[in-house]
Amino acid sequence: MKFKKGLQDRFASQELNDSQLEQLMAMQGAAVPRQNQVSTENKNSYWRPFAFASVIMVAVLSGWLYLFQNTPGQLYQAIAHEVAKNHSKLKPLEVVSAQMPTVSAYFNQLNFVPRNSSNSGFSGLLLGGRYCTIQGEPAAQLRYSQESGVVSTLYQVPSEEAYEGLPDILQGQQPMRLYSRGYAVDLWQEQGLLMASVTLLEE
Amino acid sequence: MFDQQSLNQLYAYANTLCGQQQDAYDLLHQCLENYLSKGIKAQNPSAYLRRMIRNRFIDQCRQQGLILSEQEHQGQALAIGTQCLEQLCIQQDELNKIWDILDARERELLYLWAWLEMNAREIAEELEVPRGTILSRIHRLRKKLQQSGLTWDNELFMINNEGNV
To answer: What is the band of A129 on the pLDDT scale with cuts at 50, 70, 90?
Structure first.
């Protein structure tokens, strides 16, 4: 028997049982808006398709304008992709320490000093750091361990004019939340630095 | 919306990584719940969810202190592609034994090749690693499988080598 055929038979036999399948289908049913309920009492139902189409057109046009005319949005998403990808690789730390002064002192090739963030939404035990780049610029990658044991990463790089649209933590603004590769990526500015955190999507 | 077939495929993928049915279901459940709750609209939902499953599995391994990092073997012989795996034969009762000696990366590679029928380039794109890394993994996997007793389909091997390297 061909190895490939044997594997295919094996994978085909791995199925969810009825209870598991029912749970997962029900989960989707609860998340998806019910589109098959028809109200016989709504006298305006005739106009619904046109109203829905209009909403879709506005959404598409808005999205097109955002993609092609709002360059910062593309840049921020590119940064999110880049840091999420780096996080998933989990390359070895170049400096291992729970003390920020020790970790900061390692990054003497950068033109800034890495520091703890004032973002209350990001916390954890510092594990260490390594050099990296963000959009081609030398940056610091700091690794943290959360209480649950899950690893998260905080990237820091000097802020540029292109990042002006990002929220400033010290102005009381909330980070911009993006998603990439199954991770939650938060972007913000803080004391002249662009900071990007990568964490698992919250349960 | 993931239909029954898609959910079973994702479950098989999670099971390939975890090696335990209940862990695989839990992993799938968590990732699907996150995907739905965040309102993520991926172009290829199944591929996106596979990526979520893989990332969460990797994070769980790190949490448990299991190392999944791979040492790249520079200059090591590489496989030509997935064709060399096509030439392997196996007895039915050998497959379970061999499956137990494979690690998560190797099982994942076989899942993408045998079940999703991806070639080396497509596997590299799926896992976001260089194609050379996949060829290296295939080469090591092939050697491991041969050492475990898999045989070559000599006739097919000869046919495939006509005029080729």
So the answer is: very high
CA dist., res. A138 & res. A107, Å (int): 10
The label of the residue with tokens 């965040």 reads B38
Q: Does pTM top 0.90 for this prediction?
A: no
Q: Which chain B residues are within 8 Å of A8, Cβ to Cβ?
A: 114-115
Nearest CB neighbour to A200, from listed B4, B59, B69: B59
B25 and B42 in contact (C-beta within 8 Å)? Answer: no
pLDDT tens-digit map of B82-111: 777 777 777 767 788 888 889 899 999 999
Instruction: Name chain B contacts of A183, Cβ cutoff 8 Å.
Output: 55
Contacting residues of A for B31, CB less than 8 Å apart: 182
- A202 close to B59: Cβ distance less than 8 angstroms: no
The C-alpha atoms of residue A187 and residue A117 are separated, in whole angstroms, by 12
Six-digit token string for A76:
């921020």
Cβ of A25 within 8 Å of Cβ of B63? The answer is: no
- Selecting from A20, A148, A201 the residue whose C-beta is nearest the C-beta of B38 gives A201
Q: What distance in Å separates the CA atoms of residue B55 and residue B42, rounded to the nearest whole number?
A: 16
Contacts of B32 in chain A (CB under 8 A): 24, 27-28
- Count how many pairs of residues, chain A against chain B, have C-beta atoms within 8 Å: 116
Interface test with B, best of A1, A5, A7 (most B CBs within 10 A): A7
Amino acid at A65: L
Name the token pair of A131.
């050099």
